[in-house]
Write a structure and sequence with these properties.
This protein is globular. Helix 8 packs across helix 9. The protein is of the alpha+beta class and 620 residues long. The longest helix has 16 residues. An eleven-stranded mixed beta sheet has the order 11-12-8-7-1-2-3-6-4-19-20, with helices on both faces. It contains 17 helices and 26 strands.
């Protein structure tokens, strides 16, 4: 079905098909086979992705983009043209022009007339030294240090651009817009601003467009993926990608393709709203969004209306994601089985430090799991041990110095010790890429759009940009007298709440919200900063910032430094804090009995779960 762009106020229908580099490759097929849409958006650039593709780009200047996007889109070019669909993506990475050249060749080969535009200006690597000399220190967002304090030479430096370049490209007739490091939400805001004719100072509408983009950018996150209440959702084995219907007033209805699995509920939408934010003030190159009054309303099955975003002028600085190489690292696993696990682990740790400690700069040894009291299988009696090492020189982590020493433990370590030698054969030391989130004045950016006919448009900095807004300070709940008449029970927090967590550089955010409205007053009162410290022992000694979102029934925390210097160099297994929220939900609190339910997530999937799953492919 072809949808033509209306001249007035019909909602813009945006469908997501990628949430990160490596997302489900079939998602574009699914979106094209789904319900009628106006725009496709694909997000490929997590913070570490640019660092990864920069190495390939330096070796081969024809690369530097998401190569597999070409395979995704090629079968659908004719369908995109026939249905009048626009496609906007940051798959261009470090080389939007290179990607455009490849796609133009495919378009010509297919005899189509699709117009392709490139949005650039984010890559400031070649200008870093000049900008520093001109008085721009690239101050670290969290620590306040300057780039000179870092003492490393960046291999990538990409500023976050806004949405007006995308809007301009679409206004000039582009069918496919290829971007580098624009903000994730710009992929949605740009088309919405073009479609509805929003102006630079339509603050509340622009804020609504940013919120829509934030919800859509992570794909199945909003249809049940990574959701605490997953067990109650239908078709969760293969949740679909979301669709947003963005109205002229900036409100959005979040839904999904009817044929796809998963569900869209106020809870799945809330999960994405509290994901990877710094607080109620959401800073964006085009508008400062105030999330304080955001509301979610279930208006029909799989249809949630999101409204209440408020906007103000954008900041006069933007984030610059910078990366530099910082030594090498390697990770392996060992396993310990049986009784006396704690003593076995203590001896194994001592042996590993004696064997490897003198050759590496840092060794992190983490045990996962607890043996069952009455194990029915060897797996149930086994604890996995993760061994992560960091060294300044690659040779310290080669097979000779790392795996050979690890494997030498077989005859003189603890009983029940073994390694997965099959997995180790493919492991080699990898480069560590350290992340430096900096700020740069937007006046120093050259934001451009190159059109299919060779014309170049310059997108000036926002004329109303102001000093970046500070996050509000929300007072801690005051202690309340204990009501002796109110019975409580020791139970996991997850019996009354949901959570979602993620990374913002070296910080982890954790959003926790009440599963039921009646639990909100208790949750708000109970979840103080001190409470989170008790629930999350790793946060001991770290700064915690707390905010409340009453309309979402949510308490939101930022735990500064929980992820070290960022996921790319974090030696912990949960490098980007994806499981922090679920850990907090597993911790026990004294919860009023009337708030507890046996299983608030609903009926469990009728799928047998065993400790080992074996799939045998029979070939005829």
């Amino acid at each position: 079905m072809k949808i033509s762009a209306p001249p007035h106020r019909e909602p813009l229908v945006v469908a997501a098909f990628s949430g990160y580099f490596g997302d489900r490759a079939t998602a574009l097929d699914e979106a094209m086979a789904g319900d009628a849409i106006h725009v496709l958006i694909g997000d490929y650039l997590a913070e570490i992705t640019l660092a990864g593709i920069s190495a390939r780009f330096r070796k081969d200047p024809t690369q530097g983009y998401a190569e597999y996007f070409v395979k995704q889109v090629q079968p659908h070019l004719a369908g995109i043209a026939a249905r009048g669909i626009k496609l906007v993506t940051n798959a261009g990475g470090l080389n939007p022009h290179g990607l455009a050249q490849v796609l133009r060749g495919l378009v010509a080969e297919a005899g189509l007339s699709l117009k392709i535009a490139c949005v650039e200006g984010d890559n400031v690597l070649d200008r870093v030294a000049l900008l520093q000399a001109a008085g721009h220190p690239f101050t670290h967002l969290d620590t306040g240090e300057t780039l000179a304090d870092w003492g490393r030479t960046p291999i990538a430096a990409n500023a976050y651009l806004g949405a007006w370049g995308i809007a301009a490209a679409l206004r000039e007739g582009a069918d496919i817009v290829l971007c580098g490091r624009v903000t994730d939400s710009s992929l949605t805001l740009g088309p919405a601003a073009w479609w509805h004719g929003w102006q630079l100072d339509d603050w509340d509408r622009l804020a609504g467009g940013v919120v829509a983009g934030h919800i859509l950018e992570c794909g199945p996150h909003v249809t049940g993926g990574n959701f605490s209440g997953f067990a109650s959702l239908p078709g969760i084995t293969f949740p679909g990608f979301p669709v947003g219907e963005i109205a002229a007033d900036g409100s959005t209805v979040i839904t999904k393709h009817a044929r796809d699995g998963g569900a869209v509920t106020t809870h799945t939408v809330t999960a994405q709203l509290v994901y990877e934010i710094q607080g109620p003030k959401y800073l964006n190159p085009d508008v400062t969004v105030d999330l304080s009054d955001i509301r979610c309303e279930q208006i029909a099955p799989d249809r949630v209306r999101v409204s209440g975003a408020r906007g103000a002028p954008p900041p006069d600085t933007t984030k610059v994601a910078m990366f530099a190489t910082e030594g090498w690292q390697i990770v392996s696993w060992a396993f310990v089985t049986g009784i006396d696990i704690e003593r076995k682990l203590a001896l194994l740790r001592a042996q590993l430090h004696a064997l490897l400690g003198g050759h590496v700069d840092h060794l992190e040894i983490t045990a996962f799991g607890t043996p069952a009291a009455q194990p029915e299988s060897q797996a149930e009696a086994t604890v996995a041990v993760r061994i992560a090492a960091r060294a300044s020189e690659r040779d310290a982590l080669t097979e000779e110095h790392f795996f050979s020493k690890l494997n030498s433990l077989y005859l003189w370590s603890v009983p029940g010790f073994y390694t997965d030698s099959g997995a180790e054969r493919s492991l080699k030391p990898t480069r560590r890429i350290e992340y430096w989130p900096a700020v740069l004045d937007v006046s120093q950016l050259t934001h451009t759009v190159t059109l299919d006919d060779g014309r170049t448009l310059e997108i000036p900095p926002h004329p109303r940009a102001v000093k970046a807004a500070q996050q509000p300070v929300h007072a801690e709940p005051q202690p309340q007298p204990v009501d002796a008449r109110r019975a409580t029970q020791r139970a996991p927090l997850g019996r009354v709440a949901y959570a979602r967590s993620g990374d913002k550089g070296g910080n982890s955010n954790v959003g926790i919200w009440a599963a039921d409205e009646k639990a909100w007053p208790w949750l708000r009162q109970a979840l103080t900063t001190d409470t989170l410290r008790r629930l999350l022992p790793r946060a001991d000694g770290l700064e915690i910032v707390r905010h409340e979102f009453p309309h979402l029934r949510a308490v939101h925390f930022i735990v500064r430094g929980l992820l070290g210097r960022g996921g790319s160099t974090n030696l912990q297994a949960d490098q980007v804090g994806k499981a922090v929220g679920e850990f907090v939900l597993a911790r026990q609190m004294d919860i009023p009995v009337e708030l507890l339910v046996d299983d608030y997530t609903g009926p469990r999937p009728k799928v047998p779960i065993s400790s080992t799953t074996e799939v045998v492919l029979h070939r005829g």
